[in-house]
Amino acid sequence: MLSTPRAKASSEKPTPPTARVLPRTQTDLLIQPRGRFSFVDVRELWDRRELLRIFAARDIKVRYKRTAIGAAWAIIQPLFTMLIFSIFFGRLAHVPSDGSPYPLFAYTGLVPWMYFANALTGATNSMVENSRVITKVYFPRLLLPLSIVVGGLIDFAISSGVLLLLMAYYGVVPHWPVLLLPVFVLLAMVTSFAVSVWLSALNALYQDVRYVVPFLVQFWMLASPVAYPSNMIPSKWKALYGLNPMAGVIEGFRWALLGTPSPGPLILVSAAVVLLLLLGGLYYFRSVERTFADIL
Amino acid sequence: MIERLGKMYLVGEREKYFALRDVLTQAFVRPFLTLRRRRATRSEPKFFWALKEVSIDIKKGEVVGLIGRNGAGKSTLLKLLARVTDPTEGRARISGRMGSLLEVGTGFHYELTGRENIYLSGAYLGMAAAEVRAKFDEIVGFAGVHKFLDTPVKHYSSGMYTRLAFAVAAHLEPDILLIDEVLAVGDLEFQKKCLGKMGTVARTGRTILFVSHQMNQIRRLCDRCIWLDAGRIAAVGPTVEIVGQYEEAMANASSLGEAAGHDGTETATHFVGWRLLGTGQGEASHTLRTSATFSVEFSIRVADDVRNAHFGVALYNSDNLLMWGNAFNGLALDRGARRLKVTFPSMPLKPGPYTWKVSLYTEAGLADSYYCVPNLTIGTIPVTHPMDQWQGILNIGCEIHVV
């Protein structure tokens, strides 16, 4: 620094105080102990959608950044599972497939199932993986499981593309129920989110949960009509079976795309269960959320 | 909008949560304890008030320093304000957007590139992508990482990482900036740059709450200081005053131990302490608040009568640079407790901590040499250039006339 001091400042030119204060419409923020009954601040979640987008994009980038075949994993997972199912359940065990070719039948079930399973696994770890951030900055914690569910849609879209190719290969043309497909996609998202909220909160508190999740996913798949059609279930147990919301989702997918028998009331039971799961999950998440930073 | 003259009330308190898993384990390990006893064992010793009944009102545009020992609750206070944890009691009201810089590189993701991390950090602070884009070049310029923008930050050197992290937080222009000890890292040059930037931020009417153990940084930046001790406010007031009190308290706390070590050789001649005289502040003062004349008195315990002693005294600043030194010959000291009084016409050094070094030589050689504890704190009002890098080391006022 060889220059001489100037009257005010050297390189930086401070602007007068009034010039730079941008008008921002922001209400006062009140920090106080939170009551037990505080529900989700939906508006805040919406305001932070940019962060949600970045979280989701980050997860995808990081997931595939240093893998050799990148996003091809999104195809390989359900495709290979389908092959195995086709050999063991389709060929050897002669599991019925509601009149569709078994490989197509299995793959159609696997697409929403894989989405659900990946969301569960991802969301369970989301709190712990982001503990460094959680203990340092504030943001609505719900964005973490939410970003997993939203980000998973990319993989979902990729594997759905393969599904279209398979349908074309088998010459399957969907009928009018295909118009309801968005409803089932939404139901798959909400189901994944509801369970993810539970698991992410529980895993933040008790890290044993992440060892439970792989088992949970396995058992859950056996309890869902992924490899077999739900009409194999005796009709007196059907209502109980519908308590598994993924049963409704998967049957809905097949009905919309392959024209298998309509899931009927099963879907309503599933939707009701999902709603309860979601509300309960959100409530639970909110009530333990404030302790995350102290525990992680 | 005028309400945005951000007021902050904090009557915050916070408990340390215990791991809920402990409760479960307890239930398994000792299932036969009655529920009541279990509750009793778990609640009593584990609660700890990291912060208790802290109330303060911070105005918009103020730069407030937060000082105190480790564990005094400084970081907890920032965490509460940043909404990372919820308070147990009390409340705070904040107007404006809060940007938190609790730790360098908060939220940086190692696998992502510098560019991606800038956007990520912006999103944490609640900014839209467009807002970040508008500041992007400025951030990159400040951090000096142009060439590595598309490199994952895990390949960054720690210096680059710190620079980028600070640049992001300082340029994203939140209304309120919480800074926790970030400048402890980074080289001196960059620290200076950061402090300069923070000064600029402060002058644009933004509120800064700054935690640091570097009293000089606090002194340079803050108008006002909060001294936290054991979760409570020990003192609030103008920086010069509070930092002075704090340094004195810290020095006194440590001087007990050091003095004992120094006194180890009871039989030999040795210095035992020092104090300021003629500052109108009573006994045992170590903070100089006058730019006029004053005296310093060094106490020494003399083991044997000395003729023709040689007494050296020097003053060092906190970087251990010699500020001043002198020596006096031919002193006669009788055995026992003696005091050496040195009178100065003034001490026009800029505010900060300084250390006296005294030594005494007899004809036999060095009798004792002593870095005096506690430090001398110069707490005069600065009358020099407002920018730090032009302050120099002397604190001398002057006048200008065009003739």
Q: Could you characterize what this model shows?
A:
The complex is a heterodimer of chains A (296) and B (403). Chain A is mostly helical and 296 residues long. Chain A has one domain (42-295). Helix content of chain A is 66%, strand content 1%. Chain A contains 13 helices and one strand. Chain A has helices spanning 17-20, 42-47, 49-65, 73-92, 102-129, 131-134, 143-170, 181-205, 209-222, 238-242, 245-258, 265-289, 292-295; one strand spanning 29-31. The longest helix of chain A is centred in the middle third of the chain and has 28 residues, at 102-129. Chain A is globular. The two termini of chain A are 46 Å apart. In chain A, 40% of the residues are buried. Residues 1-26 of chain A have low confidence and may be disordered. Chain B is of the alpha/beta class and 403 residues long. Chain B has helices at 20-29, 35-43, 74-81, 114-124, 129-143, 158-171, 188-203, 215-221, 239-262; strands at residues 12-15, 49-54, 63-67, 92-94, 98-101, 176-180, 207-211, 224-229, 232-238, 270-277, 287-288, 294-302, 306-317, 322-333, 336-344, 352-362, 365-371, 376-378. Chain B has a six-stranded mixed beta sheet, sandwiched between helices. In chain B, strands 11, 13, 14, 16, 17 and 18 form a six-stranded mixed beta sheet that branches. A three-stranded antiparallel beta sheet of chain B has the order 10-12-15, with no helix packed on it. Chain B is elongated, with a radius of gyration of 26 Å. Classes of the chains: A mainly alpha (296), B alpha/beta (403).
Strand segment count of chain A = 1
The 3D shape of chain A can be described as globular
Low-confidence residue ranges of chain B: 1-21, 29-45, 255-265
- First CA to last CA of chain A: what distance? 46 Å
Overall structural domain count of chain A: 1
The most extensive interface, with participating residues per chain, is: A-B, 49 and 61 residues
Low-confidence stretches of chain A: 1-26
User: Which overall shape of chain B is indicated by the principal axes computed on the Cα atoms?
Assistant: elongated
Main β sheet profile of chain A: none
Mean pLDDT of chain B: 75
Oligomer: heterodimer
The helix tally of chain A amounts to 13
* Euclidean distance between termini CA atoms of chain B: 48 Å
